[in-house]
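pinning this so it doesn't scroll away 📌
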Amino acid sequence: MTIRLLFLLTIVCWLGATLLLAELRPFSRRPLTDRLSPYVAGGMARPSTAGMFSVGSFRDVVAPLSRSVGERVAKMFGVSEELAVRLERVHSPVSSTEYRVQQVGWSVAVLIVGTIVATVLQVPPAALALVLVGTPVLVFLVMEQRIAAASDQWKRRVFLELPVVAEQLGMLLGSGYSLGGAVNRLADRGDGATAKDLLRVRRRTRQGLSDVEALREWAHLADQPAVDRLVSVLALNSDATDLGRLVGEEARSIRRDVQRELIESIERRTQQVWIPVTIATLIPGVMLMLVPFIDALSVFSGS
């Protein structure tokens, strides 16, 4: 059984290495038809590769399967937000399908390596089952947690930057800038997370969306109540005549929310400081009380 498993794993590794090396120029050789095509009439056109097995066709088959498996495993472990939304939020150049392919690929690679190591070391069946099931799932969840942590960190940065951005928007609107002009100015002059989001808002407006529609799209991706409130105020651009004052009031409200959260965080850290102090004080006190108690028990038991 061990020899058969090693033979199967060797065939799989050989096939994967062949497909990868075939894409590299030093290991690939042009087909005979391509080499002879310049010397025949009408031979400059490349021959059709339809139906040929290649890395590209293999990727086209694996991508939908990886996306489906990845979404099911993520939902199984309680991840409800779509991967495409999180990747778009952090401005990742990788699409959701590519990320799922990477997740499944790394999980399969770890599964193959773990199987080979467990077979060579002849681990017990229980440990082998743990390796075959636990390691691929662990790798998948680590990559899922990495993008989730990046998404949460981005939302946090937007929340902390939003009061300053809202105040600047209010000043620009109050000084006569249009909504699109104010957004473009902040996008050009800023270098934080919110500025990158506003660059995407400007790009979406150039693709045909209105300013309000692009801002609402940003609010959906940002997933922050403060951004929703700010965008709802900015949506009054065509109706309100004192939009700058309204945005300024909303900026002050957002700043109060940030300060309130900061105070709560400081209070939680202050309470956490007392935990080791309490433990360090409680243990010696208990020991001092325990000595006479044990002595009293020994006296009563002796009598």
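📌 and the second one:
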Amino acid sequence: MLNPDLYLNLNLFDAGAERKTMREGFGQGLLEAGEQNPNIVALAADLRDSVSMTKFAQKFPDRFFEVGVAEQGMVTIASGLAASGKIPFTGSYATFSPGRNWEQIRTTICYNNVPVKIVGSHAGLLTSPDGATHQALEDIALMRALPNTQVVAPCDVHEARKATLAIAENGKPTYLRVMRPPIPVVTTDKTPFRIGRIDAFWTSKKPRATVCAIGDMLYYALCAAMELEQEGLEVEVLNVATVKPLDIDAILTSAKKTKAVVTVEDHQKAGGMGSAVAEALSQTYPVRMKLVGVDDAFGQSGTPEDLILHYGLGQKFIAQAVREAIASK
């Protein structure tokens, strides 16, 4: 069942349940962070409206910088602002930032350990009409490999707002991964959030598998948990909102109960959240694992629903991966 201690959206599974974009949550969080701290600044690469920096730019025009189609210049400027005491947020599509400007992020931001926040919008397959060139499926791998860097992937509009406020204060280079379309609202304003903490969004008395889900895939994992419960298969679903630093203790606690782990992400299997969980467990408590993600392939154009189905990421695929993980124990 949904964890009653986390104040989740109890109408999540209803027909016509509320959907909002993560970008909306980020934009609200950025505005609130700017109101709280005059050192917050924002930079956009000709995508101010698309990444929801408009409210911030309108309220703080002297603290917003439109750099044009120049992602490499954007993060380099941001590193200089951070070295001067500012807390910059940079915004673009994830395929361009960190995709196009990874070397500048590495050398000017992460190497110098300055608190620039790289916001990668339109990540994953759900940037559906734009096709393979704009569907960032490698961004987590790119960013979690960089020293000094934190990687945060919220699950909905409310968590995106809270994550934005949290990374504004963490003093670290940080990558924030958000999606393009409206997605189900899983959490509420009261749901707790902290960088580096994993919470169990679905709990059971005798779970037989642990499902680690990230971002927009959390909703599908919760739907799969409900389906499996009706079959008599109990699971735990963990919301891995922070990929780095990874809450290894929370994963271990669940894995020791279940002896089987399934990871679910809208990202390449190689180098993503599933890889991070596998790396941690292989060194501490090896268990049976199944990774659900994009399997060494580029995206393509299509509706979100068609792409989720085509790449094997939806509810039925997660449920089947859980069955196989349990059976292999």
